Amino acid sequence: MTADALAHIKFDYSARRRAFASVLEAEGVDLAWLPIGADLEYLTGIERRVPTFGEVNYAHGWVAGAFLRPGRDPVFVLPRNYVEFDLPRGVPGEVVSVSELDDGEGMFARVAGRLGPVGVLGVGARTWGSALIRLMGFFPGARIVDATPLVNRLRRIKGEGELALMKRACLIADDAMAETTRRIGAGVTELELSEEVNYHLLRGGARTPSFDTAVWSMGPRDARDANVRISAQPLRAGMGVSFDFGGVVNGYCSDFGRTVHIGDPGSEYEEVYEVVMAAQAAGIEAARPGVTAAEVHHATRSVIVEAGYGDWFRHRTGHCIGLDVHEEPFISEEDGTPLEAGMTFTIEPSVFWPGRVGVRVEDIVLCAPGGGVKLNEYHTGLVAAE
């Protein structure tokens, strides 16, 4: 789908809110408060800012979010600066703008008061503690429940437009890998490669990287662990260099990974590489409707365990993905959620053995009746750079 066609994808936010209202009513929730974030973007279209490591905040920043009550339009309470600069297309429903000199707590209380009575209040998991404290004071007799799993029931199944945006985000990541591979070689630093990745993500049309881009190398005589995601360390012969990155298209994320070897791979590396790729293939094959997330994890992990490298597959197999990079359910041993057609998730096995070998692969997979279908198109063949 062309960039122009993607730009014209429109979501029926009213229908999404009606579906959410049905969930609230079924759970006996009278009112929900959701902060600015993926859940509120899913339900209303309000766009999140690109996150930063250091906090971006305003006076009365804790009020930023919206009340949603079944049968009524949303009521947004937002700091003035957010209203001035972050609502170019407006939002559905009422907007209460809180200026710097306003009584933020009083305004928040008046909005909440006219939405009562409230016996059960749903609160988004990422709500400011300051807002939650005040909500508890405004509705002293209300039972507080987590609203995020209620929105997740709707978000976990992706529609046609969502899949088109995610497919584009995946192809941008594929292209960034292809372009960056041209630069991989002994002497190039991890930092330089991460900058190359980010350049190609943005050049390809991503709004932003979907998380902090990671490039890290590991090989014989190198005791560095896989939790060091990037450094100024130059690559050298005998190393595998792993990538973990993604981009964002119209709010929807990709998450991608590959490993490239520097110089002659050697027999052990080639063996581990084939094991990791076989593990991913097994997980993708297992990803059918009705199969649990834990069973997909087991299908992936068992390939690595049977090959004798189980101690070095040190994380879960994957996670669902969409407006957030990490969404529930998780493709992990503790998650017994049955998969459904339309779910999207990563399958990302690895073997990271410090001082020996490091290999990873990651693609986004769509759950389909005949097994998982990759949204990424980049090959998984072994690449050895000079």
The CATH homologous superfamily of the largest domain is termed: Creatinase/methionine aminopeptidase superfamily
CATH topology of the largest domain: Creatine Amidinohydrolase
Bulk shape? elongated
Instruction: Give Rg in angstroms.
Output: 23 Å
SS class: alpha+beta
Question: What is the helix fraction of residues, given as a range?
Answer: 25-40%
The number of domains: 2
Main sheet: strand order: 4-3-2-1-5-6
- Low-pLDDT stretches are none
CATH architecture of the largest domain: Alpha-Beta Complex
Total E-strand runs: 19
- Mean pLDDT across all amino acids: 95
Termini distance? 35 Å
SSE diagram, text form:
Layout: H1 3-7, H2 13-27, E1 31-35, H3 38-44, E2 65-68, E3 75-79, H4 80-85, E4 94-98, H5 104-113, E5 120-123, H6 129-138, E6 143-146, H7 148-155, H8 160-181, H9 190-203, E7 214-218, E8 240-245, E9 248-249, E10 252-253, E11 256-262, H10 267-286, H11 293-306, E12 318-320, E13 327-331, E14 344-347, E15 350-353, E16 357-360, E17 363-366, E18 373-374, E19 384-385
Parallel strand pairs: 1-5, 3-4, 5-6, 11-19
Antiparallel strand pairs: 1-2, 2-3, 7-8, 8-11, 9-10, 12-13, 14-17, 15-16, 17-18
